[in-house]
Amino acid sequence: MYKSEQLAQHLKRLIENGSWSAHTKLPSLREQAEISGFSLMTVMNAYQDLEAQGLIYSKEKSGYFIAEHLKAQMPHSTTIVSLNPKIEINSLVFKYLKSIQSKDILPFGSAFPDHHLLTPTKLLQMVSQKARDQKSYDQTTNLPPGNLALRKIIAQRYAMQGISTDADDIVITSGGLDALNLSLQALTQPGDYILLQQTTFYGAWQAAERLGLKVITLPEHPTFGFDLQAFEQVIQHYPIKVCWFMLNAQNPIGFTVSDDIKYKIAKRLHEHQIHLIEDDVYEELFYGMNKPLSMKYFDRSNLVLHCSSFSKTLGAGFRVGWVYAGKYSEKIQHLQLMSTISANALIQNALVEFVSSHHYEKHLRQLRRRLEKNKKRFTQYLKQHLGQCCEIYSFPSGYFLWIRLPLHIDSLELYQQLITQNIGIAPSPLFNVSDSNQHYIRLNCSFEWNPSIQTGLDTLIHYILNLQSQS
Ligand SMILES: Cc1ncc(COP(=O)(O)O)c(C=O)c1O
């Protein structure tokens, strides 16, 4: 065993037995070299190894920190793989989305970042410039598979992550959800088995319901987010056609699965020749120095259809996403021409200019910094006021907090009470169709702190404490 592996294993044991709490700063590389007696290079390799495993995370100019784990988050009973033959979630999601639509509702339940952080001025200038040019509306050059220049830029961004591709592999879609839906439709027939994470984005449940699929769910692993053992058992016992996973900044919980586990998932997919639809719409919203790798990176047999969009970075209103479809490109285009046809031509043209300029990376850096700052503020405040009765899970990416309420509080009831106060929250039945684990809520904390945000949080805290005292 290399020295760096020895050191990584030693530190991993300390992390796993709880010697350090989440977000504790690790000794600097130099300090660790002194403590352990290993060289700086060995320490650096060990830290990078732990980071790849998702046990620690790095922050530019600040060093390495202990990552948040799911420990104790998931009661033991949920470690059961379950079959959900009939799903009926669409009407709940519909009613929920309608209820939080009004401008008067404080958008803690929204899936989108604070719009003040998106739609950069430079992009809007480019859109308005393009809007005056008739050529920008030429739909023919923007029909499926989408604007060639935009596909080339997206392909280059994959290449920057070590994923080789070219423009022909990419299909531009009307947002990320369109990419996910088209991929699932291209790969399945009604009655097929698909595998989802037990707590997952409601879009996956809705798509399964619409396409008449049988859903098996995988429990979250209490420490690593993804339960590899349960995964291996399921794919041995069920004829799974497709998996739909989200492994980076998972919605709603927020965790990112380690590279080591991603590598092992890819290996099993290859052995069983199972396709994976990868939902990676939050891929750019990491806080550390390095963007987490996608499953596509580990996919050597073209089984992964990687779906993403500009909705969480530039604005959901643009409705532009894409799928790295590879050999499924044509099938997806067929389906697209029978449904949404294509993403908006004008916006595709403006995105070509913006995403290829330095403004895009600059915007992403600012966005990540602001999201991290806002999430920290929310976390501190909620831990201070609810720390006694709730568990607040805050992972170093994205803009969601996942909150475990006391067991007897029904998150749907809390949501119904708060909506009468014009406060939105996302209760767990939107993400999990089983009867268990319905005492969680997802909170959007992308907003800049201001008196109305604080009042909203105070009301939320008040209602939770009130329900808690009724036990
Ligand atoms: C996990 C996840 N996937 C996909 C989507 C859909 O993204 P888009 O707005 O690009 O369609 C969302 C939007 O909320 C999401 O949260």
From TrEMBL:
Keywords from the UniProt entry: Aminotransferase, Coiled coil, DNA-binding, Pyridoxal phosphate, Transcription, Transcription regulation, Transferase
Domain HTH gntR-type: 1-69
Organism: Acinetobacter guerrae
Family: In the C-terminal section; belongs to the class-I pyridoxal-phosphate-dependent aminotransferase family.
Identification of the protein by name: PLP-dependent aminotransferase family protein
Keyword Signal: no
UniProt xrefs under SMART domains: HTH_GNTR
Entry superkingdom: Bacteria
SUPFAM superfamilies linked to this entry: PLP-dependent transferases (SSF53383), Winged helix' DNA-binding domain (SSF46785)
Coiled coil: 357-384
GO MF term list: DNA binding; DNA-binding transcription factor activity; pyridoxal phosphate binding; transaminase activity
InterPro entries reported in the protein's UniProt record: Aminotransferase_I/II_large, HTH_trans_reg/aminotransferase, PyrdxlP-dep_Trfase, PyrdxlP-dep_Trfase_major, PyrdxlP-dep_Trfase_small, Tscrpt_reg_HTH_GntR, WH-like_DNA-bd_sf, WH_DNA-bd_sf
